[in-house]
């Protein structure tokens, strides 16, 4: 696991450069992409690179990391809409090359990833309780894409997006721990001091399901991009 610590804007730029380098080498790369706030900031940088002709995502295959159960596809709070507005649309990724999560076909998601050649890169953030995606504490290492009950802490964290905790859906859909850790490379992005405790646990906790992000210690190719606030407990 490699840790890169820079000021916020430089952190985002460095993470974007690493993605651009992968796509230069393999334009048809297969990515799973988080719709978390930190990652959306990264996609804004990628969108700027696409607009400037410095990045081409037109051949990439994208698999959404998460979705909220029960939200319509055009709900602005959905992971689908957030990814569409900040990454897929601005970078002109063809709709046929983007896969979003749905309650109706979770069991096929991992098979589709495998059929695409497996994940070349997983782009993930980290939740305040150490989750990545919606893999909450106690999610087993061998979990594949699944429906997940969201914890109280996660719903509190997501409350601003929905206008209150009681409005946050009770369940989410998520690529599993095993789905992510089997990616050829993983990019973890964490910004802000509220992530510092979770970042510390991700790097130093035992690799068990009580801190799901600690499972990210196990793969060989993991780059962790932190701004200085997120790294303040290291």
Q: What's this, in brief?
A:
The protein has 234 residues and is of the alpha/beta class. The protein contains seven helices and ten strands. The chain is globular and about 40 Å long.
Strand content: 15-25%
Q: Total number of β-strand segments?
A: 10
Helix content: 25-40%
Spatial extent as radius of gyration: 16 Å
Unreliable stretches: none
Number of helices: 7
Mean pLDDT: 96
Order of helices and strands: EHEHEEHEHEEHEHEHE
Query: Major sheet, described briefly?
Result: 7 strands, parallel
Q: Outline, from the CA principal axes?
A: globular
What structural class results from the helix and strand content? alpha/beta
As laid out across the biggest beta sheet, the strand order is 1-10-9-6-2-3-5
How far apart the termini lie comes to 14 Å
């Amino acid at each position: 696991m490699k840790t890169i610590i820079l000021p916020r804007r430089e952190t985002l730029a460095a993470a974007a450069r690493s993605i651009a380098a992968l796509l230069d080498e393999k334009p048809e790369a297969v990515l799973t992409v988080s719709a978390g706030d930190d990652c959306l900031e990264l996609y804004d940088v990628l969108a700027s690179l696409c607009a400037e002709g410095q990045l081409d995502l037109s051949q990439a295959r994208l698999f959404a990391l998460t979705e909220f159960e029960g939200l319509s596809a055009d709900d602005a709070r959905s992971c689908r809409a957030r990814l569409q507005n900040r990454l897929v649309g601005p970078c002109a990724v063809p709709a046929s090359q983007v896969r979003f999560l749905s309650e109706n076909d979770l069991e096929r998601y991992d098979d589709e990833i495998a059929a695409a050649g497996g994940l070349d890169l997983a782009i993930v953030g980290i939740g305040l309780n150490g989750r990545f995606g919606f893999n909450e504490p106690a999610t087993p290492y061998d979990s594949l894409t699944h429906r997940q009950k969201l914890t109280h802490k996660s719903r509190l964290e997501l409350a601003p997006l929905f206008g209150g905790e009681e409005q946050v859906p009770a369940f989410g859909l998520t690529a599993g721990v095993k789905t992510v850790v089997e990616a050829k490379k993983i990019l973890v992005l964490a910004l802000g001091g509220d992530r510092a405790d979770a970042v510390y646990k991700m790097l130093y906790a035992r690799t068990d399901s009580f801190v799901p992000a600690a499972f990210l210690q196990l793969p060989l190719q993991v780059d962790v991009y932190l701004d200085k606030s997120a790294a303040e407990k290291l």
